[in-house]
């Protein structure tokens, strides 16, 4: 319908604030429907948290590293008349991640279910195998139950959710109030290492297994359905969507922050940039931390938008390293997790506002996918969970502490990087707050802790009829697939509202 209208009337102008994955997808979809779209981004690249750091070996990916829920992206490309495989070189991973413990245990979580069961038995025994099979099926039931009424719904209905639960009553034990993911996993696995492994998936949405509801056990099913690597890294996904948007007439304005979203007569109608210019808009899509609106960073007239985020607890932040180093003789996979010695100790430290001294470390060895014998160095991304600025203010000693902890922990695993890490190699919670204003360094929006957390996230529709929200801080949640869904839901809501008629 939008295409027909655009032929007979003046094209409506849409301003997209932020070129994160949510903003990119929104722009692409709206341009495909015939709207005039401009995207305004303070950085000089598309992707938001999908970032890279230049090195002599090429760009080092220092943002999200895995592509899951591929069907969402396949559908997106198909909806705009494209085939994803014409734009991206994708490879499905046989190893979801390789896991390491300092006692010498090494465990590959495999994509193939039967192979995964065999690997669980090989490393942890027959009892663990049976427990894993039961856990797999129970979490799959959870994921299947809530995918449609929550993840793919712009405004989840309690009635629809209840109907879905009634169809899958086996998941009810996981919905017991105050049952945490930590306690739930203890009831599912005798092996503490498997409790630790699956508890870590709560960090994918910025939570701790100590406080995340048991329902968060379903998060790992996003990976169980397949993990893909992308040639060039996840930034290639952002670039591909940007190019398709440009081909459809979208204008991207980089290097200028939006300072205000102006409102008059109950509607937003203009945005102002840091260079003093203004741009009129018939509707605005905001792709940033919604707390920026609630705290007045984009104008006093919008502080009632996403008001809950103003004082709500924040999700995890991180210290993220990106660098190149001489090739090391370690049997790394593409995705690797080196676990802390004491289960969940890092989450107690983070709760206290401390940099964990015994952290679990994630490392992406991005060049393991296509080894180059002529290449003398490899590119690495390392992620350590960290408290947001609301729990810990920046300290001048943080860099030294983080560097020491990182290198010492890896030495315990026999892993030595031949590199002198510099400040430019590290992105801290303070840096993230600068990159993503009002986020307090949190990478996933407000905290996912508590049974009602999902329902308390801001939705795409706001009290201002022509202002819509997208991104990882918006329902249905954090992560590249969820941010993509948020954009698709927002565009559908915008078109359904007929605000642009």
Number of strands: 20
Helix-strand category: alpha/beta
Task: Give the termini separation.
Answer: 10 Å
CATH class descriptor of the largest domain = Alpha Beta
Explain this structure to me?
- By secondary structure, this protein is α/β, with parallel strands linked by helices.
- It folds into 3 domains: 2-49 and 235-310 and 446-497, FAD/NAD(P)-binding domain (3-Layer(bba) Sandwich); 91-227, no CATH class; 316-435.
- Helix content is 33%, strand content 19%.
- It has 16 helices and 20 strands.
- It has helices at 2-8, 21-32, 70-79, 113-124, 126-151, 158-167, 181-188, 192-199, 221-224, 235-247, 291-294, 345-351, 398-412, 429-435, 453-456, 480-497, and strands spanning 13-17, 36-41, 52-53, 60-61, 67-68, 90-92, 95-100, 106-110, 227-230, 251-254, 258-264, 267-273, 278-280, 283-287, 317-326, 335-338, 361-365, 377-386, 426-427, 467-470.
- The strands form 5 sheets. It has a 7-stranded mixed sheet. Strands 10-2-1-14-20 form a 5-stranded parallel sheet, with helices on one face.
- Strand 7 (95-100) and strand 8 form a beta hairpin.
- Helix 5 runs antiparallel to helix 6 (158-167) and helix 7 runs antiparallel to helix 8.
- The protein starts with a helix and ends with a helix.
Indicate the topology.
Layout: H1 2-8, E1 13-17, H2 21-32, E2 36-41, E3 52-53, E4 60-61, E5 67-68, H3 70-79, E6 90-92, E7 95-100, E8 106-110, H4 113-124, H5 126-151, H6 158-167, H7 181-188, H8 192-199, H9 221-224, E9 227-230, H10 235-247, E10 251-254, E11 258-264, E12 267-273, E13 278-280, E14 283-287, H11 291-294, E15 317-326, E16 335-338, H12 345-351, E17 361-365, E18 377-386, H13 398-412, E19 426-427, H14 429-435, H15 453-456, E20 467-470, H16 480-497
Parallel strand pairs: 1-2, 1-14, 2-10, 7-16, 14-20
Antiparallel strand pairs: 3-4, 5-9, 6-9, 7-8, 11-12, 12-13, 15-18, 15-19, 16-17, 17-18
